[in-house]
Design brief:
Chain lengths: 345, 345, 345
C-alpha cells in the first residue's frame, strides 16, 4: 500500500496537521511504528509513545493537546480508534475487491442462483437450489449444501462447511473450518445398551452481521432451527448444540460450549472455555467468566464464575478462602484442642 | 415432502384413528406444530399440547387414553418416539438415495476399490489402495488416505479427513471437519530443550455404527491402533489421543478430551468439556460429568465430578460447603475469639 | 515393509547380536510384538517383556545385561528409544518420498514460486505470490493464501488452511483442519450494543521445526504478528489468539487456549484444556497443569494448577481439604456447640 496523508484524510474526514504529502506504506501500533507507518493514538495512557514515535502519520482525537513536539503529521478526528478501524476496513476491502466470478474447478449446481459480483473459488461446492446474494464471497474449498440461502456481502472463508437447508444472513462472516448444520448429538438408548440415532432434520439460521470463528461448530436443530441472531460474534472452536438460540449481539469467546436447547439472551458475554448446560435460559446482559460451568437460568446482567458457576462476587470470596483451606483446617484442629482442654477444667 | 396418513401408517405399521387421507408436508414438535405438520406424543407431560395442537397428524402410543377431543388424526403405535425417529430416518434416506457414482473433479486412484452404489463427490480425494464398501457416501472435499478401508453404508461428510491406513466400519458416520488418524502428540525431549518427534505409524480403527462429530480429532496410534468400538457416539470438537481405546456404546459429548493410551470401557458417558488423563482405565458404565477432570482409574458405574474429579455425591457435598466458605471462615474467627476469651477466665 | 537385521543395523549404526539375516515386516511394542516384528527395549521396567517376547528383532541399549535367554536377535545401540524413533522416521520418509510435482486439479497461481521436489496435491489452492521451499509437501485440499511463504521440507496436511500473508518455517508440520491466520476476535462495542469489527491485518509467523495439531487455530495479529517460535509443538484443537507469542520449544497439549497478546516464554509446558488469559507474560519453563486457568504472569519454572490457577503444591493442599469440606463444617458446628456450652458454665 502507499497513500498520502491527504488521501487518508479524505477517507476518514480528518483535519491534517503537518505535511499533507506525507507518504505512508503500512499500519502499526504507536509503540512499534516505524518511519512510513500510519498509526493512531486513542487511549491517553499511550500518549508518551506519541512523542517518541517514528510513525510518519498519526490519527489522533481532536481533543488531544500536545505536550511536546512530535515528528509525525497528525490527522485529527473525533474518534481516533474508530477512524483507524474504518481505515483498516477500507484497506482490507480494496484487497478483495477484485474477487469476482466463478473460478475454474468450482462446482456450481445448475439450479443454484448466484447474485451479481459473487465470487466462488476453485474447489468450492455449491449444491442444488442454493441462493447466494450479491457481493458474497465463497472462498475455495467451501461447501454449500442443498437449499442453503446466503445473503449479500457474506464471506465464507476457505473450507467452511454449510450443510443443507441452512440460512446465512447479510454481511455475515464464516471462517475456515467452521461447520454449520452438522447433526445435533441426539440418540435414544436401546434396552441392549446401543443407541438409536434421532435424525436431525431441522436447520441453522444465522442472521445478519454475524461472525463465526475458525473451526467453530453449530449443529442443526432436531426439528425447527438453531438460531444465531443478528450481530452475534463467535470466536474459534466454539460448540453450539442443536436447538440453541443466541440473542442479538451476544459474544462468545474461544472454546466455549453451549448445550442443546439453551436460549441465550441479547448482549450476553461468554468467556473462553466456559460451558452452559442444556435447556436453560440465559438472560440479557449475563456475563459468564472463563472456564465457568453454568447449570442454571440467570436473571439479567448477572455475572457468573466457577464450575459449577455461582455469582461472581460470591465465587471470588470463596476462592480466597479456598486458597487458605489448609490453614483453616489447622485453625480448626487448634480450636478442637483448646476446647477439649477447656472442657477438662 | 408430501405424504398421506395412510402412506405414513404403512411405513411404521400404525393403526389410523381419523382420516387416512390427511396430508402432511412437514415434521414438528407437538407444541409448535402447524396445520399440515406431522408430530408425535410420547412423553405424557406434553399431553396437554395435543389437545391444543394444530398438527394434522400425530403419532401416539396405543396406551394413550384421550381426555379431550382433538383435531388431528392419530397414528397409534407401541412406541411413538421410536416410530417418529424411524420416519425421520426414512425421510432422510429418501433425500440422499440419489447420491451415487463419482462426480466430476473427484480424484479416485486407479488402485482404489469402489463398491456398488458408492457416491464420491467432487474434490474428494480417494488415495491408492483404498477400499470403499457398497452404499457408502464420500461427500465433496473429503480426504481418504492411502490403504484406508471404509465399510458399507458409511457416510463421510464434506471435508472430513482420514489419514492413511485407518479403518472405518459399516454404517459409521463421520461429520465435516473431523480428522481421523493425524499424528499422536509424541515427542522425546532432547538435552538442549528441543524435541524429537516420535513418528506415529499406527492407525485408527473405527468399528461399525459409530458416529463422529464435526471437527473432532482422533489421533493414530504410535504403534498398533487407536480403537473406537462399535456403537460409540462422539460429539463435536472432541479430542481422542493416540492409543486410546473406547469401548462399545460409549458416548462422549462436545469438547471432551481423552489423553493417550487410556482405555475406556463400554457404555461410559463422558459429558461436555470433561478431560481424562492418559494411561488409566475407565470401567464400564462410568459417568463423568461436564468439565470434570478424571485422573484415576474407575470401578464400574461410578459417577465422577469436579476437577480433579472425585465421586459425584462427595463432590456435590463439597460444592455446597465451598459456596459457604466465607461464612465458615467467619465462624472460625468467632470461635477463636470466644475460645480465647474462655481461656482467660 | 521387509528388512533384514543387517539392513536395520546399518540405518542406526547398531551392533548385531544374533542372526543378521533375521527378517522383520512390522514395528511393535515389546509387550505386544509378534514373530516378524521389530521392537525396542528402553525403559528397564519393561525388561521382563523381553524374555517373553516373540519379537524377531529388538533394539536394546548397549548397557543392558540379559538375565535370561531370549529368542529375538538384538541390535545394540547407545539409546534404544532414540534409535527406534529414528527408524520409524526413515520408514515414514520412504513412504512419502515419491510425492512430487503438481497433481491434476491443483490450483497454483501463475505468480507462485514453487521450489524443487515440491508436492502440491489435487484440490490444493496455492494463491498469488506464494513461495514454497524445496521438498515441501502441500497435500490435497490445503489452502495457501496470497503472499504466504512456506519454507523447505514443510508438510501441510490435507485441508489445512493458511490465510494470506502468513509465514511457515522449514520442517514445520501443519495437520489437517488447522487454520492459520484467521481473524483475531477483535470488536469495539457501539453505544447501541452492536459491535464494530476491528480489521485484523497482521499475520502469523511460524518458525522452523514447529508442529501444529489437527483443527488447531492460530489467529493473525490485529497489526504486526502472532509468533510461534522454533521448535514449538502444539497438539489438536488448541486456540492461539491474536498477537500471542510462543517461545522456543514450548509444548501445548490438546484443547488448551491462550488469549490475545499473551507472551509465553521458552520450554513452557501447557497441559490439556488449560486456559491462559490475555496480556500476561508466562516465564520460561513454566508448567501449567490440565484444566488450569492462569490469569497472572509467572516467574520461571513455577508450576500452576486449578482454576483460577495458583501454585501447584498450594493447590494440591487445598484440594485435599476441599474433599473434606463437609466434615470440616461438621467439626465447626460441633465446636460452636461445645463453646456455647462452655460459655454457659
Amino acid at each position: 500500500m502507499q497513500f498520502t496523508a491527504k488521501q487518508i484524510a479524505s477517507f476518514i474526514n480528518a483535519d491534517i496537521e503537518g505535511d499533507e504529502n506525507t507518504i505512508v506504506t503500512g499500519f502499526n501500533n504507536i509503540e512499534a511504528a516505524k518511519e512510513g507507518d500510519l498509526s493512531f493514538l486513542s487511549n491517553p495512557k499511550y500518549e508518551d509513545f506519541l512523542y517518541a514515535s517514528k510513525a510518519s502519520l498519526v490519527i489522533a482525537n481532536k481533543s488531544l493537546v500536545l505536550k511536546k513536539k512530535i515528528t509525525a503529521s497528525l490527522l485529527r478526528v473525533d474518534d481516533a480508534y474508530a477512524a483507524f478501524a474504518t481505515l483498516l476496513k477500507i484497506y482490507q476491502d480494496l484487497q478483495t475487491d477484485n474477487l469476482n466470478g466463478i473460478e475454474e474447478y468450482a462446482h456450481v449446481a445448475a439450479t443454484a442462483k448466484i447474485g451479481e459480483k459473487v465470487y466462488v473459488g476453485s474447489f468450492a461446492y455449491v449444491s442444488e437450489n442454493v441462493t447466494i446474494g450479491k457481493g458474497s464471497k465463497i472462498y475455495p474449498q467451501a461447501f454449500i449444501g442443498a437449499n442453503v440461502k446466503i445473503g449479500e456481502n457474506a464471506i465464507i472463508y476457505p473450507g467452511a462447511k454449510i450443510y443443507k437447508d441452512c440460512i446465512v444472513g447479510n454481511n455475515t462472516i464464516i471462517h475456515s473450518g467452521a461447520v454449520i448444520g452438522a447433526d445435533g448429538f441426539g440418540f435414544a438408548p436401546n434396552p441392549d445398551g446401543t443407541y438409536q440415532k434421532i435424525p436431525q432434520i431441522g436447520n441453522v439460521i444465522i442472521e445478519d452481521n454475524v461472525e463465526i470463528g475458525a473451526n467453530t461448530t453449530i449443529d442443526r436443530a432436531t426439528l425447527n432451527s438453531t438460531i444465531i441472531r443478528k450481530g452475534v460474534k463467535i470466536d474459534n472452536l466454539v460448540q453450539i448444540a442443536h436447538n440453541v438460540e443466541l440473542g442479538e449481539n451476544t459474544a462468545i469467546a474461544a472454546q466455549a460450549g453451549i448445550s442443546g436447547s439453551t436460549k441465550v439472551g441479547r448482549n450476553v458475554m461468554i468467556a473462553g472455555q466456559a460451558g452452559i448446560v442444556g435447556h436453560i435460559n440465559i438472560a440479557d446482559g449475563t456475563i459468564i467468566t472463563a472456564q465457568s460451568g453454568l447449570s442454571k437460568s440467570t436473571k439479567p446482567k448477572q455475572i457468573f464464575s466457577g464450575s459449577p458457576a455461582i455469582e461472581h462476587h460470591q465465587n471470588n470470596r470463596s476462592i480466597i478462602v479456598y486458597k487458605r483451606l489448609p490453614e483453616l483446617e489447622k485453625k480448626i484442629q487448634e480450636l478442637e484442642r483448646l476446647v477439649k482442654e477447656l472442657s477438662k477444667q
